[in-house]
Amino acid sequence: MAVIALAGCSDEGAKRPVRIGSKNFTEQVILGEIIAQHVKHRLNLPVERRLNLGGTLLAHQALRSGEIDLYPEYTGTALAVVLKESVPSASAGVLALVRSAYLQNFQIEWLDPTGIDNGFAMVVQGPDARARKLETLSDAARIEGWKLGVGYEFEQRADGLPALNKTYGFRWTGRPRSMDLGLLYKALEQGQVTMIAANATDGLLSKLDLKVLRDDRRSFPPYEVAIAVRQESLRQTPGLREALAELSGKFTNSKMQALNYQVDGLHRPVAEVAAEFLRSAGL
């Protein structure tokens, strides 16, 4: 009986780990690692990293089921992929809509945004843009013959290619070429395609002579990054909300581009890059 009692005390005194997830691409893994290091430092709690879980629906299901306590998500992705809602006419209302729906349907809270808005970025070669005086997607849509390169999700998602075509009426040459996201820039550089559907925080956007065409007719919703966390986890872990809130507003798109380039372009370890970011942010 004494042994059983001691075991029970030990279990009660054990600290419950915070389980931090991410989706399966570089930016998500970096953000997941930053969150994990910050929570461990601030709360002196064990953390379990469940990074690289997979796509949006897999990460969302892991959060709903309690396999993870939190992960970083994008407002536009949550709206289109999880909630399957159309983009409201006032894009500023996307975060409020997502927050309300997640709380009501899933008991998941969206904390204040990190400062990143990683929307789809339609990209062409810089010399091509300058020669044709291209600034916006409306400018590009007036020109026939674009060869489009896309990631696999962009072609299928309602907030991706269908939204782009509906808004601007592009007349493409052939079908879009689907490929891994990491191959898009090489395909553009080699002339296999003449426009790509990239992401606003891609590291290479700050390093190559490229032009991001402005979405002047707002075919895409905002994709603000915020931490989505289970209400139950916030209740069970004192100080977790406050620790996570310290990451709100600490990023910009240019900072995230630099972090992505450190990992993808310079092949530095994610943990090292995350630690440097936290130090530079005073965290």
Give your account of this protein's structure.
This protein has about 280 residues and is α/β, with parallel strands linked by helices. It has two domains: about 1-115 and about 225-280, D-Maltodextrin-Binding Protein, domain 2 (3-Layer(aba) Sandwich), CATH 3.40.190.10; about 120-215, D-Maltodextrin-Binding Protein, domain 2. It contains 14 helices and ten strands. It has a five-stranded mixed β-sheet with strand order 7-6-8-5-9. It has a three-stranded antiparallel β-sheet with strand order 3-10-4. Strand 1, helix 2 and strand 2 (about 45-50) form a beta-alpha-beta unit. Helix 2 packs across helix 14. Mean pLDDT is about 90; it is low at about 1-15.
Report the uncertain regions.
1-13
Give me the CATH architecture of the largest domain, please: 3-Layer(aba) Sandwich
Tally the helices: what do you get?
Answer: 14
Determine the mean pLDDT: 91
Tally of structural domains: 2
CATH superfamily of the largest domain: Periplasmic binding protein-like II
Shape: globular
Q: What separation lies between the terminal Cα atoms?
A: 46 Å
DSSP strand count: 10
**Strand/helix succession:** HEHEHEHHEEHHEHHEHEEEHHHH
Q: Could you tell me the strand content as a percent range?
A: 5-15%
Q: Describe the biggest sheet? A: 5 strands, mixed
Helix content: 40-55%
Helix- and strand-based class?
alpha/beta
Rounded radius of gyration (Å): 21 Å
CATH class of the largest domain: Alpha Beta
- Here the CATH topology of the largest domain equals D-Maltodextrin-Binding Protein, domain 2
**Largest beta sheet: what is the strand line-up?**
7-6-8-5-9
